[in-house]
Design goal:
single chain, alpha/beta, 11 helices, binds zinc ion
């Protein structure tokens, strides 16, 4: 898949769907979700010179159409989002939209909410089209990954479910899809959208719902009806670190994907499992993300001819951690060595100007306060998943 120097070949067309207008998805300066997480990721990848390769192509995002949004969301909900946008712009009188999860503390109204959410959704759909139609082998939608959005309700900072809309595109092309979600929060919206659909395998590895929003993602959630066995959850105990995440990949996620053999894979690469993330209690270091990139990249070439769409997700230290974690992940997919990479001075200045204080090297991690708290508690969870959800998945493949 790669040439001798480790860089992808010219045939490995890698599409990035991105534009600065995606930063207009903003719940305001006090909200945990900040567009800086992908703005600073793109500027870091660029300032390292990693985007100057012939195999990398760019497309500006377009808005998802109404029919694309309606493949996932109810029409009254879409109307409510548009109403919320108009209210926030002062074009309509105030109204209570909390029935739709809008105007809440997690998802407050903002002046561009429908347009910006339709734009990140369009970006992810574009990436999926490119991979399905083989205009690119891998595609990346940095602003996507809004996995909590439900059919008729905003949830957890997410308005439209871009991954679910993109999966629908692949299904229409007759493909079986594997969705793998590394965000520290359970990928509930995508799981719910395809819970009874045998053509979509959803895998979510996350901090247990006993401790963290949205509270779902138990091992017992394995799909229903025809979709039984095509849903797998790995709820990690709080303080699980790199060892637990990589063990879960090697023992459960890799074997599940190899057995299920999708035609295309979508990876939600939330990086809020990092130990300094202010919203979660997992204990990953930056170094786990390039290790996951190596495993996933090998796997997509092995099981689905390389067809791979990568989207963003959570990450709530948007200046110090999230851009470095994503740059280490994407850089590894692009075949760049990521160890001992000094961060460019121009990027450090931009991060500090935004409010950060990042270390000087890409993978440098431990702050002075960092004490590895990895416990072995994850082992019983992995055993349980092997004996229940993984066994269920394998049984359905064999029948
Ligand atoms: Zn590749
Ligand atoms: Zn998250």
């Amino acid at each position: 898949m790669n040439r001798a120097d480790g860089r992808p070949t010219e045939a490995e067309r890698f599409l990035i769907v991105y534009g600065p207008e995606l930063a207009s998805y903003s719940f305001g300066p006090e909200h945990p979700l900040q567009a800086d997480r992908y703005v600073l990721t793109m500027s870091l990848l660029s300032s390292l010179g990693w985007l100057n390769a012939t195999e990398i192509e760019f497309e500006a995002p377009r808005f998802a159409t109404l029919s694309e949004l309606m493949s996932v969301h109810s029409y009254p909900y879409i109307q409510a989002v548009q109403q919320g946008q108009a209210i926030s712009r002062g074009e309509r009188p105030p109204a209570d939209l909390t029935f739709y999860g809008l105007g809440t503390s997690d998802d407050p109204l903002f002046p561009n909410m429908h347009d910006a959410a339709a734009l990140y959704t369009g970006a992810t759909i574009q990436g999926m089209h490119a991979v399905v139609e083989e205009r690119a082998i891998h595609a990346y939608s940095p602003a996507g990954g809004q996995h909590h959005a439900q059919r008729a309700r905003a949830s957890g900072f997410c308005i439209y479910n871009d991954s679910a809309a993109a999966i629908t595109i692949a299904l229409q092309a007759g493909m079986r899809v594997a969705y793998v979600d590394f965000d520290a929060h359970h990928g509930d919206g995508v799981q719910d959208a395809f819970y009874d659909d045998p053509r979509v395998l959803t895998i979510s590895i996350h901090e247990s719902g006993q401790f963290l929003f949205p509270g779902t993602g138990d091992t017992a959630e394995m799909g229903k009806g025809d979709g039984r066995g095509a849903c797998l959850n790995i709820p990690l105990p709080a303080f699980t670190g790199d060892e637990g995440i990589l063990s879960a990949f090697d023992r459960v996620i890799g074997p599940a994907l190899r057995a299920w053999a999708p035609d295309i894979m979508l990876t939600q690469m939330g990086v809020d499992a990092h130990h300094t993330d202010p919203l979660t209690h997992l204990n990953a270091t930056i170094s786990v993300f390039p290790k996951l990139a190596v495993r996933l990249h090998e796997l997509v070439h092995e099981v689905c001819s390389g067809r791979w769409l990568i989207v963003g997700g959570g990450g709530y230290d948007p200046w110090n951690v999230t851009p470095r974690a994503w740059t280490a992940f994407i850089g590894t997919v692009l075949g760049r060595p990521v160890t001992d990479v000094r961060l460019p001075e121009e990027w450090l200045r931009a991060s500090r100007a935004a409010g950060g204080d990042p270390p000087a090297f890409l993978l440098h991690d431990p702050g002075p306060e960092y004490i590895p708290l990895e416990t072995q508690d994850f082992a019983p969870v992995l055993e349980e998943v092997e004996e229940t959800a993984l066994a269920e998945l394998l049984a359905h493949i064999r029948t």
